[in-house]
Amino acid sequence: MTENFELHPDLTRDGVEVMDLRLSRLLLMNDAAWPWLVLVPQRPNKKDFHDLDPMDQYRVCDEITICSQALSRLFSPDKVNVAALGNMTPQLHVHVIARFADDPAWPGPIWGKQDKQPYEPHQLEERVLALRRELSHPL
């Protein structure tokens, strides 16, 4: 989408590409404990939300909404969390995470609660296909 855009190695290592949205590359974190998406605006050298121009800020917010709604429809979570931290991975990226009252970290944040639980290959493929189907026809 944008010349010179590259995913940070941390995101490449931990995420699986789902699809490109209008602005962002959408990743599924390879952690089966939570339905966990990451949106990465395809703009080089951006580390904070305010680094984006106003139209791109709008687009990211729209994509967050679309992904949040998709997770809600697919998984019926108790809560959908949205976060853009970037303390460890400096490339601008936004986490959209379906949370459940019985998940391993509830009600606290998910970071640092347990080791990642990678998806089994067939589960990963099914999850990515389900997300692509759901996001191909957003409401």
From TrEMBL:
It comes from the Bacteria. SUPFAM superfamilies: HIT-like. Residues 37-106 form the HIT domain. Gene3D superfamilies: HIT-like (3.30.428.10). Pfam families: HIT (PF01230). This is HIT domain-containing protein. It comes from Fodinicurvata halophila.
